[in-house]
Fold:
Amino acid sequence: MHHFASVALVDPAGRILLQERDSQPRIDPDCWGYPGGGVEPGETYEQAAYRELEEETGVRLEPGTLELVGEFRFWSEACGGIDEFCLYTAGTDLTEVECHEGRQMVFVDPQVATTLDLTASARLTLRDFLASSIYAKVAP
Structure:
């Protein structure tokens, strides 16, 4: 089983931060998804979410900033097994971030985001997240 954590960061306009992956990754190449990555040994999902967000975007959030959206599982053809991940969210005053991984890391309008070629985890969660009370709480 593959364990990872992702972050749905929401800017002041209600746009969601998404990463356009390049063609190199074995999992979901050339797709759009949340910043995030694997949980390291001895690390919690939440710790991984903070670490991965900082590694991929340069954004360092204070502990306690992220709110759990949910824990999810799905079958991954690329991994040949079950992927389990936790999705976290937070609002931010930022409107741009650095991109340390993939082609680009940008805040995307929710209506546009749902039309993109999404990663498996984003396909599973994005529409429900955007319709949730948690999104309404972190979006303006």
